[in-house]
Specification:
By secondary structure, the protein is an alpha/beta fold. The chain is 35% helix and 15% strand. It has five helices and six strands; from the N terminus they run αβαβαββαββα.
């Protein structure tokens, strides 16, 4: 039996009312999970999308001794330890970078940084190794220092014991010092390895050493020699590259 037009209109209206909520739900689900992202996730026209954040890469922290008002040793009127260490640090950074090892200088200008602040920077999570650079007399050649603690027991509890922060890395620091000395000897550089209770080495958590260069007794300006600085820097970098396990696989 055929329906009247009025009956057809009433049936169509009823069907539309029942289907409307289903259509709305489908549209909402598509807008949230479909191929088109919401407007908040799409960069505006002419703007670049922000890159995903990267975690800090483990690195070697190079610390040129002294700086600013702290001149360090004065070799001549214009030849100062703070300048020698800065030049050597830049050479070491270059040598490490060439070997694919991330490196950062604690200071890259003539500024003063306190010993406590140096240790705080060295103890940031991404630091894998800490290398302090110095220049001084007496003697000749290179002196490599490993930390020596008066109480070498690892700190207990949740809080860091400042004067023995190096305790857990002490053995790795000594191995690194020996590796640097070995590379220097291969380059026929006179070298001495010493243990020393020295700030900020004892306050540094990751493996840490200090390297001090001494001038030729007959030529104090040898400290400025590019050849000498390259020899020392390349020996340190080679030792770090060969002993990456000294820092637990880093850097």
């Amino acid at each position: 039996m055929l329906l009247s037009k009025r009956s057809l209109y009433m049936a169509a209206g009823l069907l539309f009312c029942c289907a409307l909520p289903i259509v709305r739900a489908a549209v909402q689900e598509y807008s949230e999970s479909g191929p088109q992202a919401s407007s908040s996730s799409v960069p505006a026209q002419g703007q670049a999308a922000k890159p995903a954040p990267r975690s800090a890469e483990p690195l070697v922290l190079i610390d040129p001794g002294h700086g600013g008002e702290d001149k360090g040793a004065v070799f001549t009127g214009k030849l100062l330890e703070k300048d020698v260490t800065l030049a050597l640090a830049r050479e070491l950074r270059k040598e490490l970078t060439q070997r694919g090892i991330a490196a950062k200088m604690l200071r890259d200008a003539d500024v003063n940084v306190g010993l406590d602040r140096r240790a705080e920077i060295a103890n940031e999570p991404h630091t894998a190794l800490y290398i302090a650079l110095h220049a001084g007399r007496p003697g000749r050649g290179v002196r490599v220092y490993a930390p020596m603690l008066t109480s070498p027991q690892p700190p207990k509890g949740r809080f860091l014991v400042w004067d023995s922060a190096q305790a857990q890395s002490l053995e790795r620091s000594r191995k690194l010092a020996q590796a640097v000395a070995k590379e220097l000897k291969r380059k026929e550089v006179q070298v001495t390895v010493l243990g020393i209770s020295l700030r900020p080495l004892n306050n540094v958590v990751p493996p840490a050493i200090a390297v001090e260069i001494a001038p030729d007794p007959n030529n104090v300006r040898s400290l400025e020699s590019e050849r000498m600085q390259n020899t020392v820097a390349s020996a340190i970098a080679a030792a770090i590259a060969q002993t990456r396990g000294v820092a637990g696989g880093h850097p």
